[in-house]
Amino acid sequence: MKKIFFLWAMLLIGSAAIAQSTIRGVVRSKDGETLVGANVVLTGTGRGSTTDLNGYFEVKNVPSGKYNLRVSYMGYESYLQEVESPLAGLMEISLNPSSILSEEFIVYATRASERTPTTFKTVSREEIAKLNLGQDIPVLLNFTPSVVTHSDAGAGVGYTGLRIRGSDQTRINVTINGIPLNDAESHGVFWVNKPDFATSVENIQIQRGVGTSTNGAATFGASMNIQTDKHQEEAFGEVDNSFGSFNTWRHMVKVGTGLLNNRWAFDARLSQITSDGYIDRAFSDLRSYFLSGGYYGEKHVVKVNMFSGKEQTYQAWEGVPEALLKTNRTFNAYTYDNQTDNYQQDHYQLLYTGNWNANWKANAGLHYTYGRGFFEQFREDDRLSRYGLDPIVIGNSVITRTDIIRRRWLDNDFYGAVFSLNYISDDSRWNVIMGGGANRYDGDHFGEIIWMGTAGPTQIRDRYYDNNAVKDDLNLYTKATYEVSKGLFLFGDLQFRGINYRFNGINDDRRDIEGFYTFRFFNPKLGISYENESGQTWYASYAVANREPVRNDFTDSQRGQAPKPENLQNIEAGVRTQEGNWNYNFNFFYMRYRDQLVLTGQLNDVGAYIRENVPNSFRAGIEMDASYRLSPKWTLAGNLTLSRNKIDEFTEYLDDYSTDDFRQETIVHTNTDIAFSPNVVAAAVIDFRPFPGFEVNLLSKYVGRQFLDNTQNEARSLNPFMTQDLRFNYALRPRFVKNLEFTLLVNNIFNQLYEPNGYTFSYFVANEANTGRELVTENFFYPQAGTNFLAGLKLKF
């Protein structure tokens, strides 16, 4: 009986195996365009697939029988067909454009298209998701052209930043759905305030150089235009958990209703990320949410986004002294247990886009951002005079110094509106966009003493400084593309930007500050592009950008000596194509700066270091970005930037403590490299897919030498470095979920010791024999972690 039962079981298994087959097909648009990443599901079975780079899909191990096959792709109507397994031949599936207005138009006005004569890279949701295990957006963009990233805590969580073509975050314009993100006063973007935001991003377009007109801070090196999640047609749920080195954890849950009554959709995300950091005590505790809902009609879309991030991080701002790099790379000078940064930022967006008729479309957005928080510091033996306090007299003792714990606060509101109108002529030769925005920033800056080693005449909520700033920013632009003849396009972009900026009160150095500044900028852009029959697009453009100084340039400047605004003239020329297995971009850039603001070491009247305008400086180089599909299993991709970044002439100021009378010595430098501007930046990615659902990526990054200041002194520089990361991803579709995905990311697999960021200062002191003086240079670095890993498990329902 046992033998008969065993034989019967084997026959059943064999017959089941024989009865299972594979359903194959290709998905294209109605116009014949290959649709990559389309979702293919046999409803009710848990089996499915996604289309590859050629639009092909395979649903394997399908038992005999009849099924409903559903194909969905963003911007297209869902396709439903009954199929019977086994299925002979290849299914040819064509999707019709959706009758619902596309959400792409929300960001259309501030984006470049294939016909725009400027240099850009669009990073898709799929590319972002490959590396997204909780690290910040700058780290996820590390392998895009001309990008150098860094992390204070050394592991990509917490305070992170990036530079593009050597320009730091204060010179990179960032918008979310066309709404400005840069801080109005510092021009910075603090990604730590938006933890796990990448999970709610549909795509990011990076325009290098001046690019096209946008809203908010001036584009002075690059711009980043972020579009948040689109609605999905079907209800979904997603749970994503990851963990890794330095006790890093990420927990995320995301749900959506899909389209209700074919018109309404609502989505929500909740995230938490914690990490101890690579640097000692540099922990992060980050929480965020994202809510979105709206009406999606044939002619109009109205959408509301609400998202918030709350962070607490232990400060790792001071860096590691050069002398400790070999013996204690994780050194943190701060030891007070609550030396933390605490901040929350809430964003509210009301977005509208409408298709008025065959010629006109419109887009508008109202926004409000509320930010508040503080950083707390322990100050050992600090001067009471720094806080406007008189000496403390106890008996016969006069105390002028004591230990102090202070908090420095920022409480601000940012609100306004943006809009655009798009006109396309009947013959499609004219494409005109008129747009702009009006925004106001209202920020309070104040400081409190919350504890003193020796109590003085101050209460816990007394403010030792308190000031307010209000900044109004208005911009209007008109962009036009005209098709002169088949494939030949002329482009023009004219922008007016007006700024009123006023501040008053007591600054953190106890100075009375009061100022009112007005700027009026005109930023023209002209270009030409040509699309030939082989699919190549050749382009060239000339663009101008003007930029106002940041807050500290005004508040720290010598009285009566306000800094000048900066001016940039940018030439871009290149070629790009997407043909067969090839995808490449090759371009040249020249960026000429007038009155660029740089640190020179000069002091103001109270001893604070200030930035000065240097008359002439430039960046010039070539950028190459390409990918090639060798076979269905192998894809190679990479980018390379070669550049020269020079300041014609500037004066360095060095403090001289070698005598009793403090003074500053000046040194004139000519033809030196601009700080933090490597001459070589490169990245390479090898993508191997040995079998369906499994992917292996080797990611390499090289960054050349970066100088910490503008003297081109190698003793004040960051060494070149090269890192390699290894990523494994396996996705499958079991019956109980739509998708089950495992990811393992091993960063810095060869344990490279490197520092992508730092700072320096130098001064003269008397030598040991007191017969002269010697120059002392102090370098501080932000080391990044050696070999470390992140592993994740993602479930989609």
From TrEMBL:
Residues 114-221 form the TonB-dependent receptor plug domain. GO terms for molecular function: siderophore uptake transmembrane transporter activity. GO terms for cellular component: cell outer membrane. It is a multi-pass membrane protein. This is Thiamin-regulated outer membrane receptor Omr1. It comes from the Bacteria. PROSITE patterns: TONB_DEPENDENT_REC_3. It is found in: Cell outer membrane. Keywords: Cell outer membrane, Ion transport, Iron, Iron transport, Membrane, Receptor, Signal, TonB box, Transmembrane, Transmembrane beta strand, Transport. Residues 329-749 form the TonB-dependent receptor-like beta-barrel domain. It comes from Mariniradius saccharolyticus AK6. InterPro entries: Beta-barrel_TonB (IPR000531), Beta-barrel_TonB_sf (IPR036942), CarboxyPept-like_regulatory (IPR008969), Plug_dom (IPR012910), Plug_dom_sf (IPR037066), TonB-dep_rcpt-like (IPR039426). PANTHER family: FERRICHROME IRON RECEPTOR-RELATED, FERRICHROME OUTER MEMBRANE TRANSPORTER_PHAGE RECEPTOR. Belongs to the TonB-dependent receptor family. Its main location: membrane. Residues 1-19 form the signal peptide. Coiled coil: none annotated.
